[in-house]
Amino acid sequence: MFVRVVQREAWEVEVPGKATRSFASEREAMAFARSLMPAWVEVGVVVPAREGVPRHHRWTTLRRSQAGSYVVSGLRWGGRPTPGG
Question: Is residue 57 very low, low, confident or very high in pLDDT (cuts 50, 70, 90)?
């Protein structure tokens, strides 16, 4: 199972096949996501727009270790979108 934690108007936790839950802070959203003990957590943080680059999400994927903690995996994307694309 994987869970997605994404910054939108609030911090949302998306679980495939279940209702999305909203939280006031990233900390609360991450605590809830970790309590579900998924193998993977995708985390999407808003990167503000700047000249020539629109607002977008930067995604990082965390993987649960055998010890139960979450560590950053090598899966990342969305760092710098192509303008107009």
Answer: confident
